[in-house]
Amino acid sequence: MNQKLNRYVCLMILSLCCLLLTGCWDRKELNQLAITSATAVDWDGKVWTVSYQVVIPQSIANPNTGGSPGQQAPVMVFSTSGGSIRGAVQQSSLEMPRSLFFAHNRVIVIGEKAAKEGISQLLDVYLRNSDSRETVGILVTSGEGRKILEQIVPLEKVPGAAIKNMIHNEAKNGSNFQQVSIYQMMMGIASDAPFTLVPEIVISGEGENTTIATLKKTSFTNKLKLGRMAVFKKDKLIDWFTAEQEYGISWIRNTIHHTTLFFGCTEGSKDIKAALRIDQSNSKLKPIFSEDGHLVMHVDVDTSGTLNENGCPNDPTQPKDLHTMERIASAEITRLMTNAFQVAVKNNLDIFHFADVIHKHHPNIWKQVKPDWDEHFAKLELATNVKVKITRIGMSGKAFMEMSKETGE
User: Fold this and answer.
1) Burial of 67 (0-12, 13-18, 19+ CB in 10 A)
2) C-alpha to C-alpha distance for 377 and 361, rounded to whole angstroms
3) Which of 194, 229, 35 is nearest to 123 (CA)?
4) Each residue of 272-314: pLDDT tens digit?
5) What is the pLDDT of residues 55-81, one digit of tens each?
6) How many Å is the Cα radius of gyration of the chain?
7) Where are the alpha helices (DSSP H) in 151-193?
8) Which of 89, 128, 202, 220 minimizes the number of CB atoms within 10 Å of its CB?
9) How far is the first Cα of the chain from the last one, in angstroms, to the nearest whole number?
10) pTM of the model
11) 120: closest CA among 260, 222, 234?
12) Beta strand pairing status for 137-141 and 107-111?
């Protein structure tokens, strides 16, 4: 009897609890939201301006991608301003019939003036708000960030997604540029070497692609393109690196995934004749301190790949010629790393995060050199050891021109 009574009481309590539940009390219907695919932040010296690339659902759902005369643009772009970034976002309610929804925001484009002023307010916003994701990618532009959001991108319906895919594709197949998220930016600021490299996005060519009529053309006078690498010290932009310098940095920092290495027929030649598709690469850093406190950073690179272009007289089917090409490729990687290192030391920019490497391997020594690390970094030497292995030479041996000469004879 007592068991039945207990079960009855438990059932009543559970029923009462169900009545207290309110369901989706904070739900928002899709037709009440403005889905933001990309944002931009600009600074004019007085106020912050935040621009939003908002998706137009009915245009995205339209199967007529060929473009009819009445076709609507896939996105709309508008801006609001305020004394703070969140204050600027708040102003959007004055001119939008829907609430901005940032959970699908893919990228943030920061104007150069805003980047030089400092983006600490932007990072604080992403830390404090639950609807903001720390995986959003960051890019910098030398002009206004809004201009980037206004561009129509062929092949992709949503320009914000296209920009995100662009940097992802480059990081995966080129390795000249690496994706940088809000989270990685914060980690970089908090590290012993507070330097972060952020890709630049530019509008190359002439004019702008800001109308839906652009999609009716088969060629374009301009396009969005990745340019240089912006160097941030903590939260402020302080310098720029070229794409080639960033490529050398990637070899040192072990961020090469898949890429194509171009080189000439002799060491140091600028006449590019061969290409090696890198399939595997590994770089290891090892700091060595001498008794007098001098620091040498050893970089060991072990990489392998497939020869997918050969315009040199070398015959890769012959071991001697194959080893010669491997040596030339090794020299090219060494040149790239050395040039990037020299530029970084000259400008006293520890963008390789050597400070973190020393802290990890020699914590006691790091305590001694940390107060005057800038002086130690300026005197630091780089010792490189590069090993390149050509694992496959493709379906041909000698270069086509060499075979043609032999046939002619």
Assistant:
1) middle
2) 16
3) 194
4) 889 999 999 999 999 998 777 788 999 999 999 999 988 888 8
5) 888 776 655 544 444 467 788 899 999
6) 27
7) 159-173, 182-190
8) 128
9) 109
10) 0.85
11) 234
12) parallel
